[in-house]
Amino acid sequence: MLERHRFSLLLSGGGARAAYQVGVLKAITHLLPRSHSLPFPIICGTSAGAINATSLACYASCYHLGVRKMEWVWKNFRSEQVYKSDLTSVFGYLLKNQLQGLQTKDHPRRPTSLLDNSPLNHLLRQNMEFNRLDRNIQRGYLKAISVTASSYSTNDSISFFQGASDLQPWRRAKRQGTISQLNVEHLMASSAIPLVFPSVRIAEQYYGDGSIHQLSPLSTPIHLGAEKILVIGVEQPKPDKKHQLQHHPSSAMIAGHLLDTIFADTLHADLERLYRINHTLSLLSDKQRKATHLKPIDCLVINPNVNFNEIAARYYQRLPRGVRTLMRLIGIRPDSESSLLSYLLFDGPFCQALIQQGYEDGVQRLEEIGAFLEI
């Protein structure tokens, strides 16, 4: 098992879009015997990808079982398991946030957001077996599991990691790795999409979605010892032609663009930097490479080749009434040019469609994945 400790899995954020990652992971099961352990002992996740990563790490001793359990949860998702979605709860929550502005500054303030995601906290406590993480680490099935969140207190990207005893914390410009005993609060913090879900307090700091300040997503697996990183993202393909807007973009469209930027752009920049470093190292002699203290890192990136927004539009009417009303008030309808819906539609049939798409994409690239993972 130790010989595989250079392989890593990196799962990016993306709200409900993270169901796609489950499909790709399911396709990889075809490469492994039923009782095989996790093929990538270093797992790093951000936002909804952090929840998937931790779920998989809990069953590091049996990869097939971990994927099956994760798939069952996603296929049976209901929006009310993630956020309060009935009409009274949605608008009562917003009213409480507004009334808070009338209180004095000395009065304890509750976190504000568009939606109340306390049901997700309950779901995670029911389904996450955090006690299995240490057991899997001790037995060598898992080298490290990392969950990244963004600190609103320091504006740094914080990677909370639990792993082998030889792993050390690190600190770099605007990012750091901290040894932690992972729990529900870390996952709630990492997946707290800005403005949509409330911030989370851990120790003396307040945290939000891990993608906000994550300038170098590949940094975490590399610090944890990875040399080969499989990246499963949720960025949909760009249109071939530039889309000409006929009017000013709506608030909903702008919000969708902001989320797309938060969840995807930094990964592109980091991959470009990694490829450039790899190329530079290839031009150096062995002696020169050793002097740099750098090593080449291989990456394989898998992203969907379909438009999630178009799929989400087909399931718009499955949104609970309260959330659907709220979406209409902020300008999101089935024909809206906003990706916000695809991030918030935690609905079984929609998630099943994304899982199936991920599975098909994974099967198409199965030979490539197998060669990369040396399976």
From TrEMBL:
PANTHER family (alphabetical): BLR7027 PROTEIN (PTHR14226:SF57), NEUROPATHY TARGET ESTERASE/SWISS CHEESE D.MELANOGASTER (PTHR14226)
Keyword Iron found: no
Protein name: Patatin
Catalytic machinery residues: S47 (nucleophile), D209 (proton acceptor)
Keyword Lipid biosynthesis: no
Sorted UniProt keywords: Hydrolase, Lipid degradation, Lipid metabolism
Short name of any one Pfam family annotated for the protein: Patatin
Domain PNPLA as annotated: residue spans: 9-226
Short motif (GXSXG): ranges: 45-49
An annotated Gene Ontology molecular function: hydrolase activity
InterPro entries per record: Acyl_Trfase/lysoPLipase, NTE, PNPLA_dom
Organism: Lacimicrobium alkaliphilum
GO biological-process terms attached to the record: lipid catabolic process
